Amino acid sequence: MDNLLSVTFEAHNYQLNHHRRYDIRLGRGLFGEWTVALSFGRAGRGGQELRHSAADAEQLRRVIRETLRRRLSAPGRIGCAYWLKELSVAEGVDVSFWLPEAALSKFRL
Fold it and tell me: How far is CA 28 from CA 2, 23, 34, 38, 63, in A?
């Protein structure tokens, strides 16, 4: 999978001992299909990974947007907000198509 876009979020609540990490990686597979890998778990540890692939970019765009929406609801669920730790974009990739600015701006920096 080519790494066209990679974004990392972290959430820390020291009182509740919550330390979460969430990675979203977008790429293209061997046969040209779009792929999204979602890696998550406790920060500093191995976690779980889910992979999605589709020929239609819009399907994976919805997966990414739903993932962002869920991360934004974290304060009510785990007691702390996710913050944007890292964003890496390959040349020529339209970030605004995959990661809407309105959603990204809500993550604590």
Answer: 5, 17, 5, 14, 15
pTM: 0.88
Q: What is the CATH number of domain 5-104?
A: 2.20.140.10
Model confidence at 7: pLDDT above 80: yes
As a whole number of angstroms, the distance between CA 106 and CA 81 comes to: 10
Give long-range contacts, CB 8 A cutoff, 24+ apart: 10-15: 10/43, 10/82, 10/83, 10/85, 11/74, 11/78, 11/80, 11/81, 11/82, 11/83, 12/43, 12/80, 13/78, 13/79, 13/80, 15/79
Residues 6 or more apart whose CB falls under 8 angstroms from that of 106 comprise 72
Q: What is the distance between the alpha carbons of residues 90 and 43, in angstroms, rounded to a whole number?
A: 25
